[in-house]
Design a protein that fits this description.
It is globular, with a radius of gyration of 19 Å. The chain has ten helices and twelve strands. A six-stranded mixed β-sheet has the order 2-1-3-5-6-4, with helices on both faces. The protein has a six-stranded parallel β-sheet with strand order 9-8-7-10-11-12, with helices on both faces. Strand 11 (about 210-215), helix 8 (about 225-230) and strand 12 (about 235) form a beta-alpha-beta unit. By secondary structure, it is an alpha/beta fold. It has helices at about 20-35, 50-55, 80-85, 105-115, 130-145, 155-165, 205-210, 225-230, 240-255, 260-270; strands spanning about 10-15, 40-45, 60-65, 80, 90-95, 100-105, 125-130, 150, 170, 185, 210-215, 235. Helix 1 (about 20-35) packs across helix 9 (about 240-255), helix 1 packs across helix 10 (about 260-270) and helix 4 (about 105-115) packs across helix 5. It folds into two domains: about 10-105 and about 240-270, Rossmann fold (3-Layer(aba) Sandwich); about 110-235, NAD(P)-binding Rossmann-like Domain (Rossmann fold), CATH 3.40.50. The termini are far apart.
Length: about 270
């Protein structure tokens, strides 16, 4: 007598130095809403090359890539989507029958969150950081036609190297304290757990800014965002950015339009 075994679920994962739970909540909520035989798991990874080899050899359908691997991962992939090539950073991998293709849905997430401010394209914007997320932000801002952008980074050489690919200005890490941007964007890891008591810039600059953006998702509300809210600033959190980029990932992994309301409800329920 034949036994009727259910098909194994399609596996999607996230990899990071320190894994979070956001992806598992939002993706699994979407799979459940559409009754898809998919499952999403999060992993903390120290050996990136072995992890990516595992994605290919185990037939893992999709892989989300977080700090600090978004640039380093490129060397292990077979192809890059044009947006990922432009950003020189990958946050999403799709395993297409053994071919690993790198995408950048961070750009989509940033664009969705910042397009509401494009009526003032000449406003002063300061980006802190020069990693993969900073690259995605620069591409998104450039595509949205913002023109008055400065970038600062703790390592000057890395910041200037990044800006050589864009027509924007570098500001030294010390000079940022004298700057008064309209929009302040933290694309560093400063303030991330287990160092959540830290902020990347002085409280005076926060008070002088009108819009505060922080890419950090762990904790869900960074100290920078808390201070911004206390000072009645417009804020965009790492969870806001992550939500919109995850919608792009969902479609790439499943080929289906994401059930946005169901996914948003799951996030709201967990983080309320």
């Amino acid at each position: 007598m034949k036994k009727n075994y259910a098909a194994s679920p399609t596996l999607c994962i996230s990899i990071a130095k320190q894994s979070g739970i956001f992806g598992t909540i939002i993706h699994n909520a979407g799979y459940e809403a559409l009754k898809l035989n998919f499952i999403y798991k999060a992993f903390s990874v120290n050996d990136l090359e072995s992890a990516i080899n595992g994605v290919k050899s185990l037939g893992i359908r999709g892989c989300s890539v977080s700090m600090p691997y978004k640039q380093k991962v490129i060397q292990y992939l077979d192809k890059l989507h044009p947006l990922a090539e432009k950003a020189k950073a990958v946050n999403t991998i799709v395993n297409d029958n053994g071919t690993l293709i790198g995408y950048n849905t961070d750009i989509v997430g940033v664009t969705e969150c910042l397009k509401q401010f494009k009526n003032n394209k000449e406003q002063q914007i300061l980006i802190m950081g020069a990693g993969g997320m900073a690259r995605a932000i620069l591409v998104a801002l450039e595509n949205l036609k913002f023109t008055n952008i400065k970038l600062t980074n703790r390592t000057r050489k890395k910041g200037e190297k990044l800006l050589a690919e864009f027509n924007f200005e570098f500001l030294s890490w010390s000079e940022k304290e004298k700057f008064k941007p309209n929009m302040l964007i933290n694309a560093t890891s400063i303030g991330m757990n287990p160092h959540s008591s830290k902020i990347p810039i002085s409280k005076n600059v926060i008070k002088d800014s009108k819009i505060i953006v922080d890419v950090i998702t762990n904790p869900p509300e960074s100290k920078l965002i808390k201070l911004a809210k206390k000072n009645k600033k417009t804020t965009i959190t790492g969870l806001d950015l992550a939500f919109y980029q995850a919608l792009g990932q969902f479609k790439l992994y499943t080929g289906r339009n994401p059930p946005i309301k169901k996914m948003q409800k799951a996030i709201n329920k967990f983080y309320k």
